[in-house]
Write a structure and sequence with these properties.
The complex is a heterodimer. By secondary structure, chain A is of the alpha+beta class. Chain A has helices at residues 44-59, 80-98; strands at residues 2-6, 25-29, 35-41, 69-76, 100-110, 113-122, 132-133, 141-143, 146-154. In chain A, the strands form two sheets. In chain A, strands 2, 3, 7, 8 and 9 form a five-stranded antiparallel β-sheet that branches. Chain A has a four-stranded antiparallel β-sheet with strand order 1-4-6-5, with helices on one face. In chain A, helix 1 (44-59) runs parallel beside helix 2 (80-98). Chain A is globular, with a radius of gyration of 15 Å. Chain B has a domain at 4-86 and 98-138 and 199-241 and 296-411 and 453-482: tRNA-splicing ligase RtcB (Alpha-Beta Complex), CATH 3.90.1860.10. Helix content of chain B is 34%, strand content 26%. Chain B has helices at residues 35-41, 46-53, 112-115, 119-129, 144-153, 155-160, 166-170, 188-195, 219-225, 241-261, 279-314, 394-399, 414-420, 423-432, 442-447, 456-466, and strands spanning 8-11, 14-17, 29-32, 63-73, 75-84, 89-90, 102-111, 207-216, 231-238, 274-275, 324-330, 332-341, 344-353, 356-357, 376-379, 387-392, 403-404, 436-439, 469-482. In chain B, strands 7, 8, 9, 11, 15, 16, 18 and 19 form an eight-stranded mixed β-sheet that branches. In chain B, strands 1-2-3-4-5-13-12 form a seven-stranded mixed β-sheet, sandwiched between helices. In chain B, helix 5 crosses helix 11 (279-314), helix 8 packs antiparallel against helix 10 and helix 10 runs antiparallel to helix 11. The chains are: A alpha+beta, B alpha+beta. The interface between A and B is large, with 34 and 45 residues.
C-alpha cells in the first residue's frame, strides 16, 4: 500500500446491488458451511470492485467517517481469477492488520497489472471473520451482460 | 452429482465409491456413514469433493470421509487423504486455512452441583481472560524472535513462559510440537498477523465450553483420563488464527504456479498441491508445521488463562478448582505417518481436514496411561448439545488411516441459520436450558445454532458402529464463550 493521506470523502464506482437486473452487483449464495458470493459487472474492474464491496458487506465492515485516507495498490498482472483473489486478499489483510476499509474504488488495468486507487478510512469492528478467499470453483464467466463469478470465502 | 446408485454398501456404517466411478480417480472413496447421514450429505457437494480429492497424485489406499462430512472448498470437511512420502503431493487446501484447528479437553474434580451458583461468574471470567471475536488481540504480544520460538517450540514455548506443565505437553498430540518447523518458510505478513493473536479464540465456530460429564461408557478409560460422572470439564476449540490463515493463503497462491511447473492437472484449483520432495512442498510443510505449533501454543495459553478464570471464580468455593489436561488434538493437519496399506507398510503424508487422528491402543507416541486404551478423540457437538470423548481403535488404523470424526457437521447454511434463528432468542433458550452464554455477536451465535448441525450422537454412533472409535464419555454443556 502506498501514499496514504487524509482526503475528502469521494465515492467512485457504481454500487447497484442485490438485483439481478442491475449492471453490477453481488448477492449471497447458500453454502453449507462457508460463504459464497455471486458477483457480476460489465467488465473486470467492475467485477473487482463489486467483489470488494460484497466481501466488506459479508463481514459487516463500515468505513467510519473520520480520518479519510487515500492510497494506491499495485498488483502485477495475472490471469483474472488470480488477480481477483490477490486483490481481495490485500483488502482483507489491510482490514485485519491496519483496521482500514474502503468505499471509494478507482481501478485501472494495464499490461503491467492492476492499479487500484482506493479511498476509505478506519473500519468499524466487523461482525464476521473471513479466514480466506478460496479458489474453489473460481471461474470468471463471460455472459451476455458482462462478467460473472462465484467466490467462496472460508469463514 | 453422486447418487446412492454410485455407492457400494460395505456395512450399515461404511460405503465405497469405486475408482471406476470417474476415470480420473486414482483411489476409491471410503465413506463412514449410515444411510440417513449419507442421504443428508447428498444435498451438498461433499461426496463430489471427495471424488475430486481422489484424483491427486501419489494417493494410497482410499480417500476417507467421516460421517460429519459437509461441503468445504476443494476437499470436503471430514476428509482424510494419504499421499505416499516423498513421491506424492501435499495440498494446503487438504489441511485447510485454520491449520491445526483442534480441541483441548481439561478435566476437573469439581462436582457440577457445587459450582452451579458460580457459573455465571465463571463464564464472565473465561470471557475476560480468553478474548474472542474477529481479529481480536490477546493479553500477550510477542516480538519477532519470540514468535520464531513459538513456531519452533509450540507448547514447549508456553512451558518456558510458565503457562504449561509437563503433564499438559505429555497429553498433547506430538507433545504440542511438530518437528521440522522452519520460521524462514513463513511470510513476513503471516508473522505480523501472528504476533498479537496468541491466547485468542477468534470467531466463527470457535469456543470455550464448560461441560459436565453426563455419562461414562468406559470406566477404565475415563479413570485414566481423570473424568468422572457429574464433574465439570472444559473444552477449548480454536486454531492458528490469522497466522495459519496467512500461511495457507500464501502457499495456495504460490502453488498455483507449482502445479504448472510439475505438470499436475487439477479438477479444482483449491486442490493445488506440490510434490512433497519439491522445494515448494518442503517449504509448505515447514511453514505448516510452524502454524501447527502456533496453534498448540495458542490453546496452551488459553488453557493457562482458563485455569486463572477457574481460580478467580471457584477457589475457596469448591474443594479443588484445578484443571488437568485430558488431551489436545488437531483436526486440520498434515502429518508424516506410517500406515499399512494393502499389507505393505508405507510412509505417507496424511491430510486430515475436519477429521481427528484416532490412533489405537499400543501407539508409542501416546502417554503411558493411554497406551492400553487408545488415543483420546474429542468430538465437540454443536452449541447447546452434547460432546463426546472417544478413543481410537485398531480398526481405525486399518480402515481410516487412524482417523475419526471431529464434530457434528453442518447441514444448514449460515445464511439459512440466520434467517431461521434470532441470536438473542437462542441465547435465552440456551440460558433456559441452564447454559450460560457469552457471545461476541448475536448474528454469529445464530449461525452456530444447534439446528444448523447434524445430531452429534448420530455421528458418534456411526464411527462406533464402524469400529473406528469407542465411547468413553458424553459431556453436556453448562456454559459457553462463543467467538
Amino acid at each position: 500500500m502506498q501514499a496514504w493521506a487524509p482526503g475528502r470523502r469521494r465515492i467512485s464506482g457504481i454500487l447497484l446491488i442485490m438485483k439481478n437486473e442491475s449492471l453490477a452487483g453481488y448477492r449471497e449464495v447458500e453454502h453449507a458451511a462457508d460463504w459464497e458470493l455471486e458477483v457480476w459487472a460489465p467488465d473486470l474492474v467492475g467485477l473487482l470492485e463489486q467483489a470488494a464491496r460484497g466481501m466488506y458487506a459479508l463481514c459487516g465492515m463500515r468505513v467510519l467517517g473520520e480520518g479519510r485516507q487515500r492510497g494506491e495498490l499495485n498488483l502485477p498482472n495475472a490471469e483474472r481469477e488470480r488477480l481477483l483473489v490477490t486483490f481481495l486478499n490485500e483488502l482483507l489483510y489491510l482490514l485485519e492488520s491496519e483496521g482500514l476499509g474502503f468505499d471509494g474504488f478507482d481501478l485501472e488495468l494495464s499490461e503491467a497489472g492492476l492499479r487500484a486507487r482506493l479511498e476509505g478510512g478506519k473500519a468499524s469492528p466487523t461482525s464476521k471473520e473471513i479466514k480466506a478467499i478460496t479458489y474453489h470453483k473460481l471461474q470468471v464467466r463471460q455472459g451476455a451482460g458482462g462478467l460473472r463469478v462465484n467466490i467462496v470465502f472460508d469463514v | 452429482m453422486v447418487s446412492l446408485k454410485d455407492l457400494h454398501k460395505i456395512s450399515d456404517y461404511e460405503w465405497e465409491i469405486p475408482k471406476s466411478a470417474r476415470e480420473d480417480m486414482r483411489v476409491p472413496v471410503r465413506i463412514f456413514a449410515t444411510r440417513r447421514l449419507l442421504e443428508m450429505a447428498m444435498v451438498d457437494e461433499s461426496l463430489q469433493q471427495a471424488i475430486n480429492s481422489a484424483t491427486l497424485p501419489g494417493l494410497v489406499g482410499h480417500v476417507v470421509v467421516m460421517p460429519d462430512m459437509h461441503q468445504g472448498y476443494g476437499f470436503p470437511i471430514g476428509g482424510v487423504a494419504a499421499t505416499r512420502y516423498p513421491e506424492g503431493v501435499i495440498s494446503p487446501g487438504g489441511i485447510g486455512y485454520d491449520i491445526n484447528c483442534g480441541v483441548r479437553l481439561l478435566g476437573t474434580r469439581i462436582p457440577v452441583d457445587s459450582a452451579v451458583g458460580h457459573l455465571d461468574r465463571l463464564v464472565s471470567a473465561l470471557d475476560h481472560y480468553c478474548p474472542s471475536g474477529v481479529g481480536t488481540t490477546g493479553h500477550l504480544k510477542v516480538g519477532e524472535k519470540e514468535l520464531a520460538d513459538v513456531c519452533r517450540e509450540g507448547s514447549r514455548w508456553a512451558l518456558k513462559q510458565g503457562m504449561a506443565s509437563e503433564d499438559d505437553l505429555r497429553r498433547t498430540e506430538e507433545g504440542g510440537r511438530l518437528e521440522g518447523a522452519d520460521p524462514a518458510a513463513v511470510s513476513k505478513r503471516a508473522k505480523e498477523r501472528g504476533r498479537a493473536q496468541i491466547g485468542t479464540l477468534g470467531a466463527g465456530n470457535h469456543f470455550i465450553e464448560v461441560d459436565v460429564v453426563e455419562q461414562v461408557f468406559d470406566a477404565g478409560a475415563a479413570r485414566a483420563m481423570g473424568l468422572a460422572e457429574g464433574m465439570l470439564s472444559v473444552q477449548i476449540h480454536c486454531g492458528s488464527r490469522g497466522f495459519g490463515h496467512q500461511v495457507c493463503t500464501d502457499y495456495v497462491d504460490e502453488f498455483q504456479g507449482a502445479v504448472k511447473r510439475y505438470g499436475i492437472r487439477l479438477v479444482d484449483r483449491e486442490l493445488v498441491c506440490a510434490p512433497l520432495s519439491s522445494p515448494e512442498g518442503k517449504a509448505y510443510l515447514a511453514a505448516m508445521r510452524c502454524a501447527a505449533n502456533y496453534a498448540f501454543a495458542n490453546r496452551q495459553v488459553l488453557a493457562h488463562y482458563a485455569r486463572r478464570a477457574f481460580e478467580e471464580s471457584l477457589a475457596g468455593k469448591v474443594d479443588d478448582w484445578h484443571l488437568h489436561q485430558v488431551y489436545d488434538i488437531a483436526h486440520n493437519m498434515g502429518k508424516i505417518e506410517k500406515h499399512t496399506v494393502e499389507g505393505e507398510e508405507v510412509t505417507v503424508c496424511v491430510h486430515r481436514k475436519g477429521a481427528t487422528r484416532a490412533f489405537g491402543p499400543g501407539f508409542m507416541g501416546l502417554p503411558e496411561e493411554y497406551r492400553a486404551i487408545g488415543q483420546p478423540v474429542l468430538v465437540p457437538g454443536s452449541m447447546g448439545t452434547a460432546s463426546w470423548v472417544l478413543v481410537g481403535t485398531q480398526t481405525s488404523m486399518e480402515r481410516s488411516f487412524g482417523s475419526s470424526c471431529h464434530g457434528a457437521g453442518r447441514t444448514m447454511s449460515r445464511a439459512q441459520a440466520k434467517k431461521r434463528v434470532w441470536g438473542e432468542a437462542l441465547r435465552k433458550d440456551l440460558e433456559g436450558m441452564g447454559i450460560h452464554v457469552r457471545a461476541g455477536s448475536m448474528a454469529g451465535l445464530a449461525e452456530e445454532a444447534p439446528e444448523a448441525y447434524k445430531d452429534v450422537d448420530d455421528v458418534v454412533e456411526t464411527v462406533v458402529g464402524a469400529g473406528i472409535a469407542r465411547k468413553v464419555a458424553r459431556l453436556r454443556p453448562v456454559a459457553v464463550v462463543k467467538g
